[in-house]
Amino acid sequence: MILIGANGVTKAYVTEEILKDVTFNIQTGDKIGLIGVNGAGKTTLLDILNEELSIDSGEIYKQKDLKIGYLKQTTDLNLEETLFNECLKVFSKVLKLEKEIRELELQMSRIAGEELSEVLEKYQKLQDKFNELDGYEYNSRIHGMLKGLGFKEDEFNMHIKYFSGGQKSRVQLAKLLLSRPDILFLDEPTNHLDLDAIEFLQGFLRDYNGAVLIISHDRYFLDKIANKILLLENKKIETYNCGYSKYTIQREKDLKMRMAAYENQQKEIKRQQEIIERFSNYGSARLIKQSQSRKKLLEKMQVLEEPASVSGKFSLKFNPSVESGKDVLQIDNLSKKFDDSLLFENVNIDIYKGEKVGLIGPNGIGKTTLFKMILGKVGANEGSIRLGSQVKVGYYDQEQQNLDENNTILDEIWNEYPKLTHYDIRNYLARFLFVGDDIFKEISELSGGEKARVSLLKLMLSSTNFLLMDEPTNHLDIDSKEVLENALTDYNGTCFIISHDRYFLNKVLDKIIVLNKNGTVTYLGNYDYYLQKINESKDEKEIFEISKTQLAKDKKKQRELEKLKSKIKKQINELEKEIEKVEKELEYLNSIASDPTIYDDNEKMVKLFKDIENKEKEKEELYDKWLELQE
User: Fold this and answer.
1) Cβ-based neighbour number of residue 289 at 10 Å
2) Distance (Å, whole) CA 418 – CA 83
């Protein structure tokens, strides 16, 4: 059943067209991801569907009495209310019924006879309505929702005015989910949520009976929930009836097909234009008439638009200036306190050359503080931090505090790298989508995504071999995230990255370190591997209660693994040299065999072919060994 349908919807602000001929529908049970670059008009579309904006043309159909819940990026809460009481407002009808039921119970204790029968009948109707609205469950539902979204019991009676911006956003989300509308409109719902809260929200939405329309840059989140993707691009909507991962594959195929069709049509247009010009120049009445006919057909042709391509993406590549030693970072028994409050202790980390390592853990556990300790900006209370030989550290700050708000984009790069020419800087900035007068914009004028691109450019130019990155995918749209992921995958240096982006953690990283108040635990795999190991653990507390002996064993095992890798790599190099030598010898023997005079000497010929056979066998054995080592 169609809940909402849009047909030919167009919307413009003054002279700028935002949406053009947008057509799609939302059906019962749909879990839809609405994606598109920043500024494409996604939030505008939600505002239109929620009747907060009018349309210039087209139609919007809605099912009668449709209940819509809309989570915006801005909050609307009573700051003087407590957390629990603010959530209670969702159940105002239930609370009113409960009050009426209590009043009737008091009334029934004082009356009898026919009057009691009338009150009992009214009481039963109210009870039935109360049960229908799950009246006995609202307290447990509020508790479960708030805990799932990361609030603690002792915060339930706190006034909302004392909460951070992120916590207020979570309150707004809790109220919306508790209200259970027919359709949920969610604009970046995973912002301000840690991984546990995202997992909770993911499970809630997956099991939700209503329809859901989500604007999100969290691709892992979309992949787990969405059964339909709406791509808003070039002012139009394109519908993909599949999850996010399948969408990316289908999208790539579609683009290739469209590009081929576009290029073929452009070739045909050019060919027809050349024929028209040639016929016109001949001067023959018959050929001139033909040229005019071809021209009319060409004018009636529906010209295909050039498909979206990678031209709208920035270009990023990290190149280390020097190669670091094998041991990049070693942290032993590190602890940090602020005043008398313990942030974390027993932190043990080993990172080796070429590894892509993720650091995860609850919000506020000290992940950014740990990075600042590695950089030498914050001191330790106990333990040690050692960087290896030739390690050159580059840092990406999620707060963009390394940018001077008063600088222009041009000056920000030039001040950091004064040896670059004006032409070089313009060229680099163009690769990062800053062209024309954009380069003279002040940093303070830039959006979060633009600031992120400036920071990434500075990091790229630094030629470091050990990247420390704090939430690098924040503020980036999906296309930009993919550019960053590809650059880090191709990077032959070492990465240590804080991230809540699970798709990113899966695609780029080969080791996950979990930071807890009591220490760290290392998982030699990506995010899905980490989840698998967590789910296998019967008691989550076991994960963090690891003895120093076990930690020492793990570190020893890691060192042995690195030694084995190094030994295998050496053996592979030696085998490749032997294979190259044997192939040269075979080439020489085959050149002799191609000489017809060799067949005059039978003994020499037999020996030659025996040598060739032995060399072929030797080459085959070497290749078998090489393949074994590769595995």
Assistant:
1) 11
2) 53
